[in-house]
Structures are given as structure tokens and as C-alpha cells.
């Protein structure tokens, strides 16, 4: 995943914001996932109006840095395949090898 670049203008971070849908498209996840991250406090967002939710590019970059710096759990080892039960010859079978 490419890093989010934050440009600085006159020493202050450039104020660019994304909607939750924009973040979802950028990260390749669903809108619901982004809203869950915001609800859980993992992704910070501002609410400038009653129906408007915005995520700054700076906050998004910090979120991605924190996600990438956490150690990822190793996948659980795959269980060995179960042995198939051996089939016993049918006692009623009359075919015999000669």
C-alpha cells in the first residue's frame, strides 16, 4: 500500500480532507469498515456539521503508520489433513485376483 504524502505549505500541514467513502476507496475497504475504525477510535475524524464527517490526510497517514508498525500475528499453522479411512474389501465380492 503506498504511503499517504502530506505536503506542507508555509510550515503548516495542508488541510486536505477525505470523506469516509473516499478513505474506503483509497484503502480498498468498505465504507462500513471506515466507520467502524472511526467509532472504535482507531481513525480520527472531525465532524464540522451534523451530517458531515471528514478525515484529514494527516490523520489518515498516522492511522496507516500505526497499522503498519504493529506486529501482525502469524497465521495459524494449517492442520494436517485427516487420514481417509481405509476401505475394507467387500466380503460379498466374488472377484478375486488369480
What does it look like?
A hairpin with a 2-residue loop joins β1 and β2. The model has no long low-confidence stretch (mean pLDDT 75). The radius of gyration is 27 Å and the shape is rod-shaped. The chain has a domain at 15-68: Arc Repressor Mutant, subunit A, CATH 1.10.10. Helices cover 32% and strands 15% of the residues. The protein has 98 residues and is α+β, with helices and mostly antiparallel strands.
Principal-axes shape call: rod-shaped
Which structural class do the helices and strands define?
A: alpha+beta
Strand order of the main beta sheet, please? 3-5-4
Query: What is the overall pLDDT average?
Result: 75
CATH superfamily of the domain at 15-68: Winged helix-like DNA-binding domain superfamily/Winged helix DNA-binding domain
The CA-CA distance between the termini, in Å, is: 66 Å
Please identify, by name, the CATH architecture of the domain at 15-68.
Orthogonal Bundle
DSSP summary: helix tally: 3
Q: What keywords describe this structure?
A:
98 residues, alpha+beta, 3 helices, 32% helix, 15% strand
Helices and strands in order, then pairings?
Blueprint: E1 8-9, E2 12-13, E3 17-18, H1 20-27, H2 31-40, E4 46-49, E5 52-56, H3 57-69
Antiparallel strand pairs: 1-2, 3-5, 4-5
Helix pairs in contact: 1-2
Amino acid at each position: 500500500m503506498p504511503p499517504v504524502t502530506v505536503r506542507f505549505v508555509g510550515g503548516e500541514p495542508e488541510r486536505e480532507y477525505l470523506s469516509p467513502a473516499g478513505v474506503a476507496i483509497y484503502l480498498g475497504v468498505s465504507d462500513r469498515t471506515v466507520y467502524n475504525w472511526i467509532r472504535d477510535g482507531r481513525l480520527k475524524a472531525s465532524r464540522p456539521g451534523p451530517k458531515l464527517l471528514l478525515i484529514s490526510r494527516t490523520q489518515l497517514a498516522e492511522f496507516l503508520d500505526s497499522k503498519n508498525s504493529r506486529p501482525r500475528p502469524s497465521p495459524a499453522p494449517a492442520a494436517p489433513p485427516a487420514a481417509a479411512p481405509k476401505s475394507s474389501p467387500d466380503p460379498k465380492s466374488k472377484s478375486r485376483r488369480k
